[in-house]
Design a protein that fits this description.
Elements: H1 6-10, E1 19-20, E2 37-42, H2 46-61, E3 65-66, E4 75-80, H3 85-104, E5 109-114, H4 120-126, E6 134-136, H5 144-154, E7 157-159, E8 167-168, E9 180-184, E10 186-187, H6 198-202, E11 206-207, H7 210-222, E12 227-231, H8 248-256, E13 262-266, H9 275-283, E14 290-292, H10 300-306, H11 312-325, E15 330-337, H12 344-357, E16 361-366, H13 384-407, E17 413-421, E18 428-432, E19 437-441, E20 450-458, E21 463-467
Parallel strand pairs: 1-8, 2-3, 2-4, 4-5, 5-6, 6-7, 9-12, 12-13, 14-15, 15-16, 19-21
Antiparallel strand pairs: 10-11, 17-18, 17-20, 18-19, 20-21
The chain binds S-adenosyl-L-homocysteine, iron/sulfur cluster (SF4) and FE3-S4 cluster (F3S).
């Protein structure tokens, strides 16, 4: 048994990260899942969604087939998120259901993985739950075949590493979409914002080699993909862990020259946002005009306490340049309300910055203390009731600007990549270049294609449109 611990997870060793091209192997376990099914439940960010695509790839590599029916599954994998208390609660609610199922069907194998599995306090509790069979962390899910085999032969397994692993390049992947793909460019995070658990659950920043990223994008394009989204906790810190000065702007330039029609990237940190990046984005037509740029707070005093290392003035300067150099750019953000010590005045400064930037969309959260992070130990006098009121006030403003920005698009024509059926009847859904969700009246044959769409209706969260064949 190998349990996680926060002390080790905080260490940023100077040890060189190895890029391994043969570390994933099935050890002749290719028939392990013959005639058996797996179900995977995913919580959390795009990184977890993409990890689940890798875990699915691994499960199918060893013979399992996918199911969405819990009652049919021989293996249930819960890929968890630890970012806020409510992410925890969702996963724990699901675990309750799985526990009941396991009481009826004791042969099911339950695998608990993802960011919650990296948490010391939580794992010390669940390691004794009889109905969780395998616990593995974010650094070693490529060993799931081995863990399954060991579990089948000798029972419960718990293997979590707190010191990050290497970069492993040969894990099979089963992607959810045939047209739009996630591509990791870096793992981990070294920013240590004081509220955030990610640097502990995902370890030191490790960038993939640019050649490997570009090869992956080229192959995706050759296989018909129209869009890639480059993934990392701080995409624009890409390469800071290299010996040379190759950076994210260089990578964007190279990915652009593969010719793939659409390139996106999340998440950008204002700290590392360079003019060189803005140059590349404005120069390359296949880099989409969409920037997710988390501000977190509009108060410089709170930003400092958060350890974000930029001021609102610097942030607004980036926004100004983006709007000046990239026509039609959408800017979205993340905001935390009720950080310890946030006063009404600090909060008003957050409203002020929203009024200045007029975001296309924002994800807003109430501060959630995460065990072991510096902010969880800061004095916090504001009541939850007050925090909820602040969140409601903020959301009202965010929604106003979201609708306003959508209204500007009415009657205009945008390129939309149609991704699949919409849950609105008879329609298909897709995204404009500036990342607006559109429900389009069109034929099925357009799925997977980029087509001109005229915007006919606008709502706060989505647009309606029809094919513009003029
Ligand atoms: N790497 C990205 C964000 C990762 S987490 C970045 O730096 O922007 C996604 C969002 O969750 C964060 O931007 C933040 O707004 C929110 N978040 C992270 N930790 C939180 C916490 N402890 N409480 C509330 N919100 C949190
Ligand atoms: Fe968390 Fe900050 Fe890293 Fe984003 S940059 S993952 S908020 S520590
Ligand atoms: Fe959650 Fe881990 Fe992502 S904590 S937000 S799944 S990096």
């Amino acid at each position: 048994m190998n349990l996680p611990n926060m002390k080790d997870a905080k260490i940023r060793s100077k040890k060189e990260v190895k890029i391994l091209y043969d570390d994933y192997n099935t050890n002749n376990l290719l028939d392990l899942g013959k005639d058996k099914k797996y179900l995977i439940l995913t919580y959390g960010c795009q990184m977890n969604v993409h990890d689940s695509e890798y875990i699915s790839g691994i499960m199918e590599d060893i013979g399992y087939t996918k199911t969405d029916e819990m009652n049919e599954a021989d293996v249930i994998i819960v890929n968890t998120c630890a970012i806020r208390e409510n992410a925890h609660n969702k996963a724990e609610g699901m675990l309750g259901r799985i526990k009941h199922l396991k009481e009826e069907k004791e042969n099911i194998i339950v695998i608990f993985c993802g960011c919650m599995a990296q948490e010391e306090g939580l794992v010390s509790k669940i390691k004794d739950y009889k109905w969780i069979d395998i616990i593995c962390g974010t650094h070693n899910y490529h060993k799931i075949p081995e863990y399954l085999y060991e579990y089948m032969n000798s029972g419960k397994m718990c293997e979590v590493y707190s010191i990050e692993g290497n970069v492993i390049e040969n894990i099979p992947v089963k992607r959810d979409s045939k047209y739009s793909a996630w591509v990791n460019i870096q793992y981990g995070c070294d920013k240590f914002c004081t509220y955030c658990i990610v640097p502990y659950t995902r370890g030191k920043q490790r960038s993939r080699k640019s050649e490997d990223i570009v090869d992956e994008v080229r192959e995706l394009y050759n296989n018909g993909y129209q869009e890639v989204t480059l993934l990392g906790q701080n995409v624009n810190a890409y390469g800071k862990d290299f010996q040379d000065d190759y950076d994210f702007a260089d990578l964007l330039g190279e990915v652009s020259s593969t010719g793939i029609p659409r390139i996106r990237f999340v998440t950008s940190h204002p700290w590392d946002f360079t003019d060189k990046m803005i140059d590349v984005i404005s120069r390359c037509d296949n880099i989409m005009p969409y920037i997710h740029l988390p501000i977190q707070s509009g108060s410089d005093r709170i930003l400092k306490l958060m350890g974000r290392k930029y001021t609102t003035k610097e942030y607004l300067e980036i926004v100004r340049k983006l709007r000046e150099r990239i026509p039609n750019v959408s800017i979205t953000t993340d905001i935390i309300v009720g950080f310890p010590g946030e006063t009404e005045d600090d909060f008003k400064q957050t409203l002020d910055i929203v009024n200045k930037v007029k975001y296309d969309l924002a994800y807003t959260f109430i501060f959630s203390p995460r065990e072991g992070t510096p902010a969880s130990m800061m004095e916090d006098k504001t009541s939850m009731e007050e925090k909820k009121k602040r969140l409601a006030r903020l959301n009202e403003l965010i929604n106003k600007y979201a609708l306003e920005s959508n209204k500007k698009m009415k009657d205009k024509v945008y390129d939309v990549l149609i991704l699949g059926e919409s849950d609105k009847d008879d329609k298909y859904m897709g995204y404009t270049d500036n990342m607006k969700l559109v429900n389009v009246k069109c034929d099925k044959e357009y799925v997977g294609k980029i087509i001109p769409v005229k915007i006919t209706g606008v709502k706060t969260w989505s647009l309606d449109g029809e094919v513009n064949d003029k």
